[in-house]
Amino acid sequence: MNSLRIALPDDFHAHLRQGPPLRAYVARSAANFGRFLAMPNVVPPPVDGRFLADYGAALASAIAGSGRDARVLLSFKLVPGMGPEAVYRCAEAGAVAGKYYPAGATTHSSDGIAEPGQVSRELAAMQEAGLVLAVHGEDPAAPVLGRETAFLPVLDRVVAAYPRLRVVLEHLSGAEAVAAVLDWPDRVAATITAHHLAYTIDDLLGDRLDPSFYCKPLLKSAADRSALVGAACSGSPKFFFGSDSAPHPAAAKAAGAAGVYASPAAMPILAAVFEEAGALDRLEGFCSAAGARFYGLPEPRGELLLERREWVVPGELDGVVPLAAGRTLSWTAYRT
Ligand code: NCD
Ligand code: ZN
Question: Ligand 1 center to residue 142 CA distance, Å?
Answer without folding.
Answer: 18
